[in-house]
Write a structure and sequence with these properties.
This protein has 180 residues and is mainly α. The chain folds into 2 domains: 82 residues, RNA polymerase sigma factor, region 2, helix turn helix motif (Rna Polymerase Sigma Factor, Chain: A, Orthogonal Bundle); 59 residues, Arc Repressor Mutant, subunit A. 70% of the residues lie in helices and 0% in strands. The chain is built from 7 helices and no strands. Helix 1 crosses helix 3. The radius of gyration is 20 Å and the shape is globular. The N and C termini lie far apart (49 Å).
Amino acid sequence: MIMILTFSSDLERDKFEYIFSTYKKLLMHKAYGILRDYMLAEDAASEALLRIYKNLHKIDDPTSKKTIAFLVTIVKNVALTMLAREKAYITQEYDENQEDDFDLEQQTISALSSENIYKIIDQLSEELKGVFLLKYAYDLSHREIGQMLGITENNVTVRLHRAKNKLAALLQKEGYSNAQ
C-alpha cells in the first residue's frame, strides 16, 4: 500500500521529514524489541509514523526529549497491540498421541493476570509509568532514561523506587498477596 501524505505547510513537512529521518531506526528498534520479528517491527514503525503524522500538531520541537518519549510511546502502543493480535492467532499442530495437558483454568488465570497487570501499570502517574516502562519494557539504563527525559540518573532511580512501591501496593490491593 502506498500512501501520500499532504502537509499544510513547508514547516510541517520539514518537521515530519526530520522525525522520520532521525528517529526511524529508534522506532524500528523499539518495535523489534517488543515483537521480535523484523517484518512486524517494520509494520509497527510504519503504523506509528502514520499516527505521528496525524498528531504532528502536538509536536512543537522535534529535537526535544519530550518528543522522543512521545514517539517511543506511540510505537510501543502500536507494537503491543500487534503483539496481542498475534498471540490471539497463535495455533499449534494437534498430535493425537500426545496427552492432553491443557489446563484451561491456568490459561485463563494467566491471561487475566497479564491483562490486570497492564491495567495496574496504567494506574501509575505518567511520570512513574514512563520511567518504569522505559526501564523494564525497553531495558534502558538509568543514564539513557535520564537523557531521554531530561532528568538526572538519581531522579530516575527515585522514580523507579516509587513506581515499584506504588505497584506493590496496587498489586496487593488487587489480591496479589505476594507483591512486595
